[in-house]
Automatic annotation (TrEMBL):
Gene3D superfamilies: Cysteine proteinases. Pfam families: Peptidase_C39_2 (PF13529). Residues 26-98 form the Peptidase C39-like domain. This is Peptidase C39-like domain-containing protein.
């Protein structure tokens, strides 16, 4: 496949949509859907902890907006996107694009319970966890 850099995605969203750094810091939940489709990927909103576990067991990447945890330490009203991949004994591997020191295995149930409730993350999605596939 083609390499798509984060800066390329940010530039596209900023210049062609209102989903990145327009009225809020960072990318909206809807921006995840828009960007995925722009590069030919299929985003699917995950609506339960069981569906999250299933997607991770199947080997898919999941982008997750979380809040009030170690990944989003900026206080109430803030959230942060992390990437989940893999499954092992109820845990998934988290990649934190902001702080790689946070990368590692975490309980899926805890991450699901820490999902963002910020409207910027949930508007149009319901839940701010999105499975990304290339089909």
């Amino acid at each position: 496949g083609n390499e798509v850099l984060p800066t390329t995605v940010a530039s596209y969203l900023y210049n062609n949509t209102v989903e990145f750094n327009r009225g809020t810091e960072g990318t909206t939940g809807n921006g995840i859907l828009v960007a995925s489709r722009q590069w030919g990927l299929t985003p699917t909103v995950i609506n339960s902890s069981a569906a999250l576990t299933s997607a991770l067991k199947e080997g898919h990447h999941v982008v997750a907006a979380v809040q009030q945890d170690k990944f989003s330490p900026w206080g109430y009203g803030t959230s942060h996107e992390i990437v989940l991949k893999g499954y092992s004994n109820g845990n998934t591997y988290v990649s934190d694009p902001y702080n790689s020191a946070n990368n590692g295995w975490y309980p899926i149930v805890s991450l699901w319970n820490e999902q963002s409730t910020q409207s910027v993350d949930t508007r149009g999605l319901g839940n701010p966890f999105v499975k990304i596939t290339d089909i």
